[in-house]
Amino acid sequence: MSFWPSSCHRQLLPLKHACTLNPEALSESTDPDFEFEYVDIGNVTLEGGVTAREQMKFANSPSRARKPVQSGDVIISTVRTYLKAVASIGPEAHNWIVSTGFAVLRPNSQILPGFLYRAVQSNPFVESVVAASTGVSYPAINPSALGSILIPIPDLPTQKSIADFLNRETARIDQLIQKKQGQLALFPEKEKAEISRLVLRGTDANIDTFPSGIVWRGAVPSHWTESRLKAHFKMRKRQGFEDRTVLSVYREFGVIEKSSRDDNINKTPEDLSKYQLVEPGDLVINKMKAWQGSLGVSTFTGITSPDYVVMVPIGEHDAGYMHHLLRARPMPTAYHLISNGIRIDQWRMEPEKFLSLPVFLPPLHEQRQIATSVNRVLKNLRDVSEAVSRSIDRLRELRSALITAAVTGQINVATWDKQGLTDRRLDKIEETLRA
User: Fold this and answer.
1) Is residue 366 assigned to a domain?
2) CATH assignment of the domain containing 302
3) Rounded to whole angstroms, how far apart are CA atoms 338 and 9?
4) pLDDT digits (tens, 9 = 90+) for 183-194
5) Could you tell me if 357 and 208 lie in one domain?
6) How confident is the model at residue 341 (pLDDT cuts 50, 70, 90)?
């Protein structure tokens, strides 16, 4: 089955006719003191190419560090190829060694390195590789099958025109992607700043304040009252509820259903008899990571690890406000001060000291107003963040489509710029973001 469009069928040849696959390999007799820069699978991305390298000696290198590369080579991951881990190796590659998880393609006289790089990025090539891969959870392709996959090989002047066009156009798209990724990176800090402002000072920016006398707390609105957390929570361990949903605590979210995330590597045991009951309004704390903000007031009924601390509410407060307050800066600083341990990654917060911490609270009705304001601000920020993420996806789709169309001869690269077609598509993506 061919995934290539009819526009390039007459130019198709097996990949092995255009390049040498895996031309070199380090032998086990290599000098142990031989120094090189190692490129692993995780160091290659679609837009960035080779993003990182690790300096090492052969004696201390992993067994997969065996494939030398040189300027002009193209590397492509032979595992999970749908991720498009492809990179062009430039003149800066001096003593670079890549993982055996890559196939190294060294172009011959029939194909230009720049065109080969774009051809193996194109959708028909990737689809061909995926179709020829074996394995379910970790699909991979062997060198023989890879070498038999067809690619279009037009004449060299055409190859150069296509490669130059794509270098120019994808650079523009990549700059936009990078700019938007920079915007995305700012959202978590914006969220933290807005939450802290609201839960520590309220919604009135001109309110009178007084000094709290606590270094990490700062000024407090004058009508707020001081209390201790022990006036609002007490520890309670309730076990024997094995049939309930398992909950976990995430630094980014607070208390969530564990099954809602696929990045939790902690395996749930078969015996849940020791797991603790959690009800809405309960405070759940990861003692080992409280200083990182790993706690939250639950909105769920379920059970959680016996290693966590569960506290039930006893005082008058709004659960939503308390959730945001206890997770907001500078509270983790306070938790850090009452944590101890041999290593920083094993610091343990003492629950008794936590309950003795002072808190300054507004009246109950104001707590509810602040919680509503926080939720509204978070929703607005996350809506914008999601819109930016969607625009990045659209840009990546445009990049991929442009590469495929140029490589397969479906667009005239000589007239594309003059017609302003890339500009129009980019403008449309920006209009969608502003809508």
Assistant:
1) no
2) 3.90.220.20
3) 70
4) 999 999 999 999
5) yes
6) confident
